[in-house]
Amino acid sequence: MASWFTRATSNHTAQLIVTAVASGCVVGFAIVGLQEAKRRYRVEDIKASIPELSSNHKATRLTEYGAAADVFAPSKEDERGMAMAVRARQGDWDDDLILEQLARNRVFLKDEGLAKLRSCFIVIVGLGGVGSHCAASLARSGVSKMRLIDFDQVTLSSLNRHAVATLADVGTPKVHCIRRRLEQITPWVHFDCRNELFGEDSAGRQLGDLNGQKPDFVVDAIDNIGSKVALLNYCFENNIKVISSMGAGCKSDPTRILIGDISASTDDPLSKSTRRRLRAKGVKDGINVVFSTEKSGPGKAQLMPLAEDEFSKGSVSELGVLPDFRVRILPVLGTMPAIFGLCVANHVMLEITGYPHEYMPSKNREGMYDGIMGALQGLESRVAKAQDIEPTNLRIPMTPDDVGYLVEEVYNGRSVVSGLSTRLALSRWNAPPKGFVDTSIAGQKVSPLKLRDLVCMTKEEVVKHEKEVLKGDKSPEDLWGPEVAAKVEKRLQEEALFERFR
Question: Where do the TM regions start and end (predicted)?
Answer without folding.
Answer: 12-34, 120-139
